[in-house]
Specification:
The chain has one domain. The strands form 3 sheets. A two-stranded antiparallel ribbon has the order 1-6. By secondary structure, it is mainly alpha-helical. Helix content is about 50%, strand content about 10%.
């Protein structure tokens, strides 16, 4: 049992490292998401791994919210827009993440991370909204400060390769909740 919780702590540490690197980039460049923007969360193709959402699943189990979210994931057949996305009913494209603190790596990195292009050079994987609203910031962005998608993906995959397959976010969340729930069912003294 302690090994499993060590794994969750390791995932949480990597997610925290991502946040720290993004903060450095933001401080140096001024790159920010527009206030209230949730456009990326409206994409029904968002994928993550069960491993990345284990800290979220643990939180949902601890706070007795897991069953509610499993039902929501089941209702949408584990597909579509993330079940945690809360759209703003008054402004299309705006919204918020209902589990922001616990969001997976992709949700942290999107619009703030570097990828290698076909010439093996780093470039920002900027979102369309950043390109439209902050072209001058993107033009002067210190790319060396941007966290690298591949580096963090590899760090996470190396923790537990068998839980590192990409899948729709709602499916990954359901798998992680079931895994955490099963662990707690085996030993309810973990709380």
């Amino acid at each position: 049992m302690p090994i499993f919780f060590d794994l969750i702590e390791q995932v949480s540490a990597i997610l925290s490292q991502i946040d720290q690197e993004i903060e450095v980039l933001q401080q140096a460049s001024g790159l920010q998401c527009p206030s209230g923007c949730g456009k990326c969360c409206e994409n029904p193709q968002v994928e993550t791994t069960p491993l990345e959402v284990l800290p979220l699943a643990l939180e949902l189990v601890k706070t007795n919210k897991a069953e509610y979210w499993l039902e929501k994931a089941t209702k949408v057949n584990y597909a579509g827009v993330c079940i945690f996305y809360e759209p703003d009913p008054l402004a299309a494209g705006n919204g918020r993440c209902g589990v922001y603190t616990w969001r997976p790596a992709l949700c942290r990195l999107f619009g703030f991370a570097a990828v290698r292009n076909k010439h093996e050079q780093s470039e920002l994987a900027a979102c369309k909204i950043h390109k439209q609203t902050m072209p001058e910031v993107l033009a002067n962005l210190p790319i060396a400060l941007a966290p690298n998608f591949s580096d963090f993906s590899m760090q996470l995959r190396n923790l537990q390769p068998e839980q590192s397959d990409l899948m729709p976010i709602n499916e990954a969340v359901a798998i992680a909740i079931n895994k955490i729930g099963f662990i707690f069912d085996l030993d309810s003294s973990n709380f």
